Amino acid sequence: MHFEIELALVIGKKIKDLKESDDWESYIDQYLLAIDMTARNIQEEAKKKGHPWSINKGFDTFLPLQGPISKSVIKDPHNIEIYLKVNDQVKQQDNTELMLFQIGRQLSDISKVMTLEKGDIVLTGTPKGVGPVGTGDVMTAGIRVDGKELEEAKMRVAIEDSKGAYEYAET
User: Is the pLDDT of residue 2 over 90?
Assistant: First the structure.
């Protein structure tokens, strides 16, 4: 399993064919902190065989979320620090100003393909440092605004073995 820390947007109203220059902030209700998990073994096997690989993101517990975080707390989502530690070692830590595409562009691109509805969650991308975790590891994550830790964004996730019936096997 690999982790990716991301700022998440909670959509507040329907978005269809948004222009990048539109007031994209008015479409966001609030923010969340998300850890986007990926089962790399499943992803790599499926890719190798030309199969769809969306299952690698779909397991129970594969999207821990923390928040909500008010828009009044994150006034500029392009200038916050997000971080993730594994067993108290920093693995990801960067400012959202380094996003490859700013949020207006992301929402514009997405809404040209699919309609975003109130309550939908959009992940905005991850900083460098994506890596693996295993059973027994503990991930902690958070957001800092102007160097100040946001209490509502503090997250702690202990990695446990799945209790479900799925067992990985090459197909």
Answer: yes
